[in-house]
C-alpha cells in the first residue's frame, strides 16, 4: 500500500523591491498632481478688483510688504515686523543686490492710506522701479 506523500509547498515570497517601486511611483504621482497654494500667515481683508492678476504670473516673485489695518508693516515671506526706517534699510540692501527688484504691497482695505503712500515713497527712494498692489479677485467668492 502506497501512501500519498504530500509535498510541502513553500510559502509564497513577497518581493519587497516590486512593492517599493509601486509606492515610489504612487508618491511621485501624488506629488506631481498636488497643487501647492501659498497660504499667507497674516490675515488681511484685501480690496476686491475685477482686473486682479493671478499670483505667480511673473518669473521673479516680488518683495512683499504687508500693511495691516492698524498700519503695522511686515516684510517678506516670514512677515517680519518693521518700522519705516528698517524697511528702507531692507529695501536698499535688496535693491543693491538686484537692481530689477519688484515690490508688491499687500495692504488691508482698512489700512491707513498714508502708510501705503509712505511705503511707495520708500520704494521710489530705494530705486525700486516696479511697485504693485495685491487685490482679491472680485469674481471669486
Q: Can you tell me about this structure?
A:
The chain is built from three helices and seven strands; from the N terminus they run αββββαβαββ. It has helices spanning 16-33, 84-97, 113-125, and strands at 48-49, 63-67, 73-75, 80-82, 102-107, 130-133, 136-137. It is rod-shaped and about 105 Å long. Helix 2 packs parallel to helix 3 (113-125). The N and C termini lie far apart (86 Å). It is an alpha/beta fold and 141 residues long. The chain has a domain at 48-137: Nucleotidyltransferase, domain 5 (2-Layer Sandwich), CATH 3.30.420.270. The strands form two sheets. The chain has a five-stranded mixed sheet. The protein has a two-stranded parallel ribbon with strand order 1-7.
Summary tags:
141 residues, alpha/beta, Nucleotidyltransferase, domain 5, five-stranded mixed sheet, two-stranded parallel sheet, 7 strands
Instruction: Please give the share of residues in helix.
Output: 25-40%
- In total, the number of strands is 7
Separation, N- and C-terminal Cα atoms:
86 Å
Describe the global form: rod-shaped
Q: What is the class of the domain at 48-137 in the CATH system?
A: Alpha Beta
Quick one: biggest sheet? 5 strands, mixed
Secondary-structure blueprint of this entry?
Blueprint: H1 16-33, E1 48-49, E2 63-67, E3 73-75, E4 80-82, H2 84-97, E5 102-107, H3 113-125, E6 130-133, E7 136-137
Parallel strand pairs: 1-7, 2-5, 5-6
Antiparallel strand pairs: 2-3, 3-4
Q: Brief description of this entry?
A:
The chain is α/β, with parallel strands linked by helices and 141 residues long. It has helices at 16-33, 84-97, 113-125; strands at residues 48-49, 63-67, 73-75, 80-82, 102-107, 130-133, 136-137.
Amino acid at each position: 500500500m502506497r501512501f500519498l506523500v504530500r509535498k510541502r509547498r513553500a510559502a509564497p515570497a513577497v518581493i519587497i523591491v516590486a512593492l517599493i517601486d509601486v509606492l515610489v511611483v504612487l508618491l511621485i504621482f501624488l506629488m506631481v498632481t498636488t497643487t501647492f497654494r501659498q497660504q499667507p500667515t497674516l490675515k488681511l481683508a484685501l480690496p476686491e478688483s475685477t482686473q486682479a492678476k493671478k499670483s505667480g504670473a511673473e518669473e521673479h516673485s516680488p518683495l512683499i510688504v504687508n500693511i495691516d489695518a492698524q498700519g503695522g508693516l511686515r516684510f517678506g515671506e516670514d512677515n517680519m515686523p518693521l518700522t519705516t526706517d528698517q524697511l528702507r534699510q531692507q529695501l536698499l540692501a535688496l535693491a543693491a543686490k538686484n537692481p530689477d527688484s519688484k515690490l508688491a504691497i499687500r495692504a488691508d482695505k482698512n489700512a491707513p492710506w498714508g502708510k501705503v503712500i509712505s511705503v511707495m515713497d520708500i520704494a521710489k527712494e530705494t530705486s525700486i522701479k516696479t511697485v504693485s498692489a495685491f487685490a482679491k479677485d472680485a469674481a471669486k467668492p
